[in-house]
Write a structure and sequence with these properties.
Blueprint: E1 9-17, E2 23-28, E3 39-40, E4 43-45, H1 52-64, E5 67-81, E6 86-99, E7 110-116, H2 127-142, H3 145-149
Parallel strand pairs: 1-6
Antiparallel strand pairs: 1-4, 2-3, 2-7, 5-6
Length: 150
């Protein structure tokens, strides 16, 4: 049985910020489970018995060789992909890079990576990343990042 296809899958995501406020995005590769060729906030599937934050830390280490700090929950999105016959529930967290420089460790799943200013993001984003981005912009309008540090 395949998660996300035969039953609802849980996929956790990370909005990772660098010290300059840029966002880390990954381009889904030819072996990705869905939405190939689109940019996303990175993440991955949650394994049975695994906590969300632990899954996110594991995925970032496996796929990009970095250690992250998992912060506040940004949102939970119903990631519905009827054309691909998939249904995921996707909690996404605001995260910070603790150590390492991201590199592509699973080139089949990821074709490119990059850091982007909020106003310079690629146009071709996954469904869940579009929703995350809308929620992230709302959050910034409600609580500028400068006030979060205070």
């Amino acid at each position: 049985m395949r998660r996300g296809v035969d039953y609802i899958g849980v996929g956790v995501g990370a909005v990772i910020l660098d010290d300059g406020g840029r966002l880390f995005l990954a381009l889904r590769g030819p072996a990705a489970k869905n939405e190939r060729g689109l940019w996303e906030f990175p993440g991955g599937s949650v394994e049975f018995g695994e906590r969300l934050a632990d899954a996110l830390r594991r995925e970032m280490t496996e796929e990009y060789g970095v250690e992250i700090e998992v912060g506040d929950l940004l949102d939970v999105v119903d990631h519905l992909l009827p054309a691909e016959g998939q249904h995921w529930v996707s909690p996404t967290f605001i995260c910070r890079l603790i150590s390492g420089e991201p590199t592509i460790r699973e080139p089949g799943k990821c074709a490119a990576i990059g850091w982007f200013a909020l106003d310079e993001l690629p146009a071709q984003l996954t469904v869940v990343t579009q929703a995350n981005l809308a929620h992230y912009r709302q959050r910034l309008q409600q609580r500028p990042l400068d006030s979060e540090a205070a």
